[in-house]
From TrEMBL:
Coiled-coil region(s): none
Keyword terms of this UniProt record: Oxidoreductase
Any Pfam family: DAO
Domain FAD dependent oxidoreductase: start-end pairs: 10-397
Listed GO MF terms: oxidoreductase activity
InterPro entries documented for this protein: FAD-dep_OxRdtase, FAD/NAD-bd_sf
Family matches, as SUPFAM superfamilies: FAD-linked reductases, C-terminal domain, FAD/NAD(P)-binding domain
Taxonomic superkingdom: Bacteria
Keyword Glycoprotein on entry: no
GO cellular component: cytoplasm
Protein name per Swiss-Prot or TrEMBL: FAD-binding oxidoreductase
Source lineage: Bacteria, Pseudomonadati, Pseudomonadota, Gammaproteobacteria, Oceanospirillales
Classification via Gene3D superfamilies: D-Amino Acid Oxidase, subunit A, domain 2 (3.30.9.10), FAD/NAD(P)-binding domain (3.50.50.60)
């Protein structure tokens, strides 16, 4: 242990895609930035997502319809949702908050804020990709497709489509013939679908994180392999205790994903953050199956073409961070995908990751309520990759006192 503290102007805790984007914006604003993470950049949840920039996903998960859907979601063996029942006592407070939000008023408020966040999300990412000098290999601008296998699913999609239309989301209804023309693998499978032409996908999320980290380092951002253990205010600065020794910073940004909760608690904020356990399988022999992210709406996963393989990612499992991988979740993904497209070959990679999720489907972006100098950027749920660039821009604006008024809805104080 060092006797004296290392010093930085701004420390960003967390080198996932959100932390990296925050560091990018802060460095562009002229701040000296240090990134701290025990793992390499993008190694956790940022590496295994579906790769989709889902700028259309303005509906929060807590909707009034969840009250009638909940029994089927929880009890059906064919559900895309799974609850590890032995952890129910610990999850119950979060689930109660979630169900309290499942009303028209709360859902409408969350939709409005998600629209504010998502509308600029692709353009914010384009700014970063321009800086990375991407030649079109990482960012794929081909849109995204959601298709529906049953008449019931297609009818339900119409109501969601109408709600997105109210917020100006660019989307196109497609009949079965148009779907097959766009993606031949879908011929004969679906009743209809919705194309989101402005959506994009990243052909390798881990490579994106690595390239962004390299660009930051080339501009003087320090990357430190250490785990932040706690924070405290001291003399107008922030003391950060890490497993590699003490640090001191003028300001701190907590962007540690699912590991942000104890750090926020040390700052005086009790944030109801849990981990949604998400899974993926990758199939190299099926890499040409689809040309853009495609989701069967009834099954709640995405098939995304990646560099040299097809990634199928999705489902939700609530449990404990340390639980082992649930092979039944992987079986769910493979079984349903192969029921649609036939044998996909042997998977080259299986993955479990932890999505940091809050009951109102909104992230926490902005200052801590009780520890001056500390800001938050976490809790993005399924939208971490999509909202990373926008979060970084808004976080930097917040630190400079220039955040838009509506961002207060994403503040930590909403949980008091």
């Amino acid at each position: 242990m060092r006797e004296s503290s290392e010093h930085t102007e701004i420390m960003v805790i967390g080198a996932g895609i959100v932390g990296l984007a925050c560091a990018w914006h802060l460095q562009r604003q002229g701040f000296e930035v240090t990134l701290v993470d025990p793992e390499p950049p993008g190694a956790a949840a940022s590496s295994g997502n579906a790769g989709l920039l889902a700028n259309f996903a303005i509906e929060p998960l807590a909707q009034p319809a969840i009250w009638r859907q909940a029994p089927g979601l929880v009890l059906s063996p064919h559900s895309p949702f799974h609850l590890r029942w032995r952890h129910l006592p610990g999850l119950a407070p979060w689930l109660w908050r979630f169900m309290q939000r499942a009303n028209r008023r709360s859902a409408a408020q969350a939709t409005q804020i998600l629209s504010e966040l998502l509308t600029p999300s692709v353009n914010d990412w384009l700014t970063i990709f321009d800086d990375l000098e991407d030649n079109g290999t990482l960012l794929q601008q081909r849109g995204s497709l959601c298709f529906y296998l049953s008449a019931k699913g297609w009818r339900k999609a119409q109501a969601e489509l109408s709600e997105r239309e109210r917020f100006g989301v660019n989307q196109q209804r497609l009949d079965a013939k148009a779907l097959a023309e766009l993606e031949p693998a879908l011929e004969g499978l679906a009743r209809g679908g919705i194309l989101f032409p402005d959506a994009c996908h990243v052909s390798d999320p881990l490579t994106l994180a690595q390239r962004l980290a390299e660009r930051l380092q080339s501009r003087g951002v320090h990357l430190v392999r250490a785990k932040a253990l706690g924070l405290a205010s001291h003399g107008g600065r922030i003391d950060i205790d890490t497993d590699r020794g003490p640090w001191q910073a003028e300001k701190v940004v907590i962007a540690a994903g699912t590991w942000s909760r104890p750090l926020a608690l040390a700052c005086g904020d009790r944030i109801p953050l849990i981990s949604e356990r998400g899974y993926h399988l990758e199939f190299p022999t099926a890499r040409g199956l689809v040309s853009r992210p495609c989701s069967p709406g009834e099954y709640a996963f995405y098939l995304t073409p990646m560099q040299g393989r097809l990634r199928i990612a999705g489902t939700v499992e609530l449990g404990h961070n340390d639980d082992p991988i649930n092979s039944r979740r992987l079986d769910y993904i493979r079984r349903h995908a192969e029921s649609l497209f036939g044998p996909l070959g042997e998977p080259s990679h299986t993955w479990l990751g932890l999505r940091p999720s809050l009951p109102d489907s909104l992230p926490v972006i902005g200052p801590a309520t009780a520890l001056p100098g500390v800001s938050y950027a976490f809790g993005h749920g399924h939208l971490g990759l999509t909202l990373a660039a926008t979060t970084g821009r808004l976080l930097a604006a917040s630190i400079k006192g220039e955040a838009p008024a509506w961002l207060a809805a994403c503040g930590a104080g909403r949980f008091r």
